[in-house]
Specification:
This protein is α/β, with parallel strands linked by helices. It has two domains: about 200 residues, Rossmann fold (3-Layer(aba) Sandwich), CATH 3.40.50; about 90 residues, Methionyl-tRNA Fmet Formyltransferase, Chain A, domain 2 (Roll). The strands form four sheets. Strands 5-2-1-6-7-9-10 form a seven-stranded mixed sheet. Strands 12, 13, 14, 15, 16 and 17 form a six-stranded antiparallel sheet that branches. Strands 3-4 form a two-stranded antiparallel sheet.
């Protein structure tokens, strides 16, 4: 089958590799343009771009698609059976949605209609969902509103993290898109009930508010790592928390370092033990090692 593949981050790479390995003709790979990264701020291709070059595939990196007639014409000229989209990062305008014979198929990392939007994996962890999954849908002009072709779920363990779920859904999506192309299942409209949205994340979403319950803060830490990262402000710095665990029983005043286990912090309900954290410009450390260089005796109030 003659395809275009449209994706940018690591989540999309297993699907690209699976389509290529299955023998589909990938006429073009679309992804976000290279951007400055690392200490030297060198122009760096996104993971899909790098994988496409490795596979010898043609890559296009338009900065915009809306009101870009030349891009619409170039896409139509590919003569596609279908386009596969996975976390591309640009909205496809109607001329591109309508160009492939079988339309544009999206690999979405949630059980639609729950968690439409840019950050469904983090949203599932943050809100304590019991399950997540992947939906293959035929795209329309709405935000993740198109009819569903395939849907598969996975149970979330109590301590699930974003990296854990990300990797499993990426592999699930690769497997399901091969099925969708082969089987051409009927499209089923999404139910109107149960719609939720997971908007694009910013650094502010990682801030820890000690007045919130410890269980909620634990979910935020597991959801926001590795990006945008969970953090609190202390002495004018953003201190990052990589791992923590909520403790049963009564806590203490929110934000107060409590006696007992190293770095146990009072919360709005219960207490949170910080296991691994990091100050700016330094390596991440286990709590005991961190406290040797940055003493925080009981009674210290964190920001």
């Amino acid at each position: 089958m003659r395809l275009a593949f449209m994706g940018s981050p690591g989540f999309a790479v297993p699907a690209l590799r699976a389509l290529h390995a299955a023998g589909h003709e990938i006429a073009a790979v679309y992804c976000q343009p290279p951007r400055p990264a690392g200490r030297g701020q060198r122009e760096t291709p996104c993971p899909v771009h790098a994988a496409a070059l490795e596979l010898g595939l043609a890559v296009r990196t338009p900065a915009r698609l809306r009101r870009a007639a030349e891009e619409h014409a170039a896409f139509a000229a590919l003569g596609l059976d279908a386009a596969v989209v996975a976390a591309y990062g640009l909205i496809l305008p109607p001329p591109m949605l309508e160009a492939p014979r079988r339309g544009c198929l999206n690999i979405h990392a949630s059980l639609l209609p729950r968690w439409r939007g840019a950050a469904p994996i983090q949203a599932a962890i943050l809100h304590g969902d019991a399950e997540s999954g992947v939906t293959i849908m035929r795209m329309d002009e709405g935000l993740d509103t198109g009819p569903m072709l395939l849907r598969e779920s996975i149970a979330l363990p109590p301590r699930a993290t974003t990296p854990w779920l990300h990797d499993r859904l990426a592999e699930m999506g690769a497997r399901l898109i091969l099925r969708a192309l082969e089987e051409d299942p009927p499209a089923i409209p999404q139910p109107e009930a149960g719609v939720t949205h997971a908007p694009k994340l910013s650094k502010a979403d990682g801030r820890l508010d000690w007045s919130r319950p410890a269980e909620e803060l634990d979910r935020r830490i597991r959801a926001m790592n590795p990006w945008p990262g969970a953090w609190f402000e202390q002495g004018g710095e953003a201190w990052r928390v990589w791992e923590a665990e909520p403790l049963a029983g009564e806590g203490g005043p929110p934000g107060l370092v409590l006696p007992g286990a190293p770095l146990t912090i009072g919360c709005g309900a219960g207490a949170l033990r910080l296991i691994r954290l990091q100050r700016p410009g330094r390596a991440a450390m286990e709590a005991e090692a961190f406290l040797r260089g940055t003493p925080l005796p009981p009674g210290t109030r964190l920001g």
